[in-house]
Amino acid sequence: MKKLLAAVFVLCIFAVNQGVASESYLDLAEVRSFIDDFSERYQYPKSSLTALIGNVEKQVQVLDAIQRPAEKKKNWREYREIFITPKRINEGLQFWAQNAVILEAAERQFGIPPEIVVAIIGVETFYGRYKGRYPVLDSLVTLGFEYEPRKKFFRSELEHFLLLTKEEALDPSVIKGSYAGAMGKSQFISSSYRRYAVDFDENGKRDL
Fold first, then answer.
1. What is the pLDDT of residues 111-131, one digit of tens each?
2. Which partner for 182 in 95, 108, 139, 187 could form a disulfide, CB atoms 3.0-4.6 Å apart?
């Protein structure tokens, strides 16, 4: 009897695992429709896009994080304690000194004072230390098809992300960022990246 129960237990576990493994965003009609539409509009290889989205894993942590953003819970005093610290200020000064030539050139061309750029990068990623740990493709697919309040926005960002990675010859499956899909030291979302990023060193890449 014990052997029979053990066998049944193993079979149940196997069945559950098989069910989890078989889940795919390709099972959703709206995802298949997105693939068809995007591929046709932008001449994006349908087989490649199908493979990309077929390998996406649902980001449960992303869905949880998007519903309780710190921006809605913390006041200025709480934010100040996080961002205005001796360590962050010192690292900001070091970053400024190390990149002074580029920052000054950027100010001449765009009119943005170096301290503004340095402050933004310090707040967003602590000068590149924390650029995000979520797969951007997975996050945007998860939010674009499962987060009802902002599906339209995140689906648009997914389109921009796919176009961005194609334009810059990047592998969309390996890029990581914030839970909302922001990337790089300055944490640009894909639409902002495509709209505002420039190839400042003229090496053929808009590298943020």
1. 999 999 999 999 999 999 999
2. 187
Tell me which residue has tokens 């389109």.
159
**Domains of the chain and CATH, by start:** 44-68+131-197 (1.10.8.350), 85-130 (no CATH)
The one catalytic residue in 40, 124, 146, 157 is 124
Give the pLDDT confidence score for residue 21 in this predicted structure: 43
> For the packed helices 136-146 and 151-167, what is the interaxial angle rounded to 10 degrees?
150
Task: Please tell me the pTM assigned to this model.
Answer: 0.85
In the residue annotation, 107 being an active-site residue is answered as: no
CA distance 163 to 152: 17
- Greatest alpha-carbon pair distance for the chain in Å reads 81
On whether the CB atoms of residues 204 and 169 are closer than 8 A, the answer is no
